[in-house]
Amino acid sequence: MTAATQALFLLGSHQPGWLACAGVPLFISDRRLRPYKTLPRAAAPWALDSGGFTELKDYGDWTTSPEDYVIRVRRYRDQIGRLMWAAPQDWMCEPAVIAGGRMGPLTFVGTGLSVAEHQRRTVENFLQLRDLAPDLPFVPVIQGYTLPEYLACVGLYEDAAVDLAAFPVVGLGSVCRRQGTAEAHDIITALRQRGIPRLHGFGVKTLGLARYGHLLCSADSLAWSLDARREGTPLPGCTRHKNCANCLRYALRWRTGVINTLPKSPGHRPR
């Protein structure tokens, strides 16, 4: 067992230009990078969010093909550099994503499919991306909503001869809205017991990190932007904006606070 380390925390950002100047690991969405004709060069390692949450929320389906996604990811890898890994075009399994309706302030059109179908499509997409571009660092994502469903998704990967333990990180989907719960803790514990030690928690905030951060390899969060918008008043010295929802200074300060509270872990950081 290695010496204790903290989970790697990726600061979520909707400002791709920060890749060139933030100097910390970032989590950036493909949906934000797509419009850029000239891409920034990364000053630190980063990971790519496929933008699936917004895709399924707004359209109930993926509007971009795996072939087009591969073209963009290859461009990001080559022109931005320092890409650690890229999420696949996975299918989240929260009830509102499937049935439609509201999740907090957000409204979902609904896919009308089953959890099992979302899982099948998630695994199928990963396999397709891997076949299309074996040179790109796509990682598998485990989807589900209940513990038996997550374990069933693991079984789909096993049936496809995908060794989840061999990847530098494996994404854990559909837990961010339950991120501070005992249920999320139990799911992560069970997956680790199945031999998947390097899990990435999507959208895990401070409550979740405090509860099970020591069981994660890495995590990301964009919660700082909502916090800044709710606070309303910008930081002292921030005179060019009404709030700090798009402020690098605020984001880095928030990140430092999160890092200082992260529990120690005997796990490994992603390579």
List the helices and strands and how they pair.
Elements: E1 5-6, E2 8-13, E3 26-29, H1 30-33, E4 46-49, H2 52-59, H3 66-80, E5 83-86, H4 95-99, E6 101-103, E7 106-108, H5 115-132, E8 141-142, H6 147-159, E9 170-172, H7 182-193, E10 199-201, H8 206-212, E11 218-221, H9 223-231, H10 248-261, E12 264-265
Parallel strand pairs: 2-3, 2-11, 3-4, 4-5, 8-9, 9-10, 10-11
Antiparallel strand pairs: 1-12, 6-7
Number of helices: 10
Q: Assign a percent range to the helix content.
A: 25-40%
**What distance separates the N and C termini?**
17 Å
**What does the overall shape look like?**
globular
| Biggest sheet strand line-up | 5-4-3-2-11-10-9-8
Could you please describe the fold and organization of this structure?
It is a single chain. With 271 residues, the chain is α/β, with parallel strands linked by helices. It has a single domain, classed as Queuine tRNA-ribosyltransferase-like (TIM Barrel), CATH 3.20.20. It is built from ten helices and twelve strands. The strands form three sheets. It has an eight-stranded parallel β-sheet with strand order 5-4-3-2-11-10-9-8. Helix 6 links the parallel strand 8 and strand 9. Helix 5 runs parallel beside helix 6 and helix 6 packs parallel to helix 7. It is globular and about 55 Å long. The two termini are 17 Å apart. The C terminus is likely disordered.
